[in-house]
Design goal:
The chain has 3 helices and 5 strands, in the order H-E-E-E-H-H-E-E. It is an alpha+beta fold. The protein binds adenosine monophosphate.
Length: about 120
C-alpha cells in the first residue's frame, strides 16, 4: 500500500485545533463539521480522526472500532439534521471523492452529507 498522508492538510489542522471548524458532532474516533463552502442547505463533512487519505486507505487500514464509529457518526448526523426518509425526512446524499479522477481536494478521508433541497442528477 502506498498512501502518503499529508500532516499539514486542512482537516489535520482542524483535528489539531490549529484552525476552527463549525462542529456538528464529535465522537472518540470521528468528527463532523459544516463544510465551509456549502453546496446545499445541509452540507456536513464527516472525517475519521486517524490519518487516512481516502476511503480505500481507511477501509484497509483502520481498526473495526474506527470504521464502526465512523459509520455510526454519519448515521447520527443524518438523524440529527432530520433528513432520514425512514423518519419523515426528505432524503440526503453521501459523497466521498478519491484521488485525481474523484477530484479530491483535501487529502484526509471524508464523507460529504448533503441535504435540505432536491439534489438533482448524480453527476453533472
Ligand atoms: P473534496 O473535494 O471532497 O476533497 O472536498 C473538500 C471539501 O472541504 C470542500 O467541499 C471544501 O469546501 C471543504 N473545506 C475546505 N476547507 C474547509 C474548512 N476549513 N472547513 C470546512 N470545510 C472545508
Amino acid at each position: 500500500m502506498d498512501y502518503k498522508y499529508d500532516v499539514v492538510n486542512i482537516f489535520a489542522k482542524i483535528l489539531r485545533a490549529e484552525i476552527p471548524c463549525s462542529k456538528v458532532l464529535e465522537t472518540e474516533f470521528s468528527l463532523a463539521f459544516n463544510d465551509i463552502n456549502p453546496r446545499a442547505p445541509h452540507h456536513i463533512l464527516v472525517i475519521p480522526k486517524g490519518p487516512y487519505v481516502n476511503f480505500d486507505h481507511f477501509i484497509l487500514s483502520a481498526r473495526n472500532e474506527e470504521i464502526l464509529d465512523f459509520n455510526s457518526t454519519i448515521s447520527s448526523v443524518i438523524i440529527k439534521i432530520k433528513v432520514d426518509p425512514c423518519n419523515g425526512g426528505k432524503g440526503y446524499r453521501l459523497i466521498t471523492n478519491s484521488g485525481l479522477d474523484g477530484v479530491q481536494e483535501v487529502p484526509h478521508f471524508h464523507v460529504h452529507i448533503l441535504g435540505g433541497r432536491p439534489l438533482g442528477g448524480m453527476l453533472s
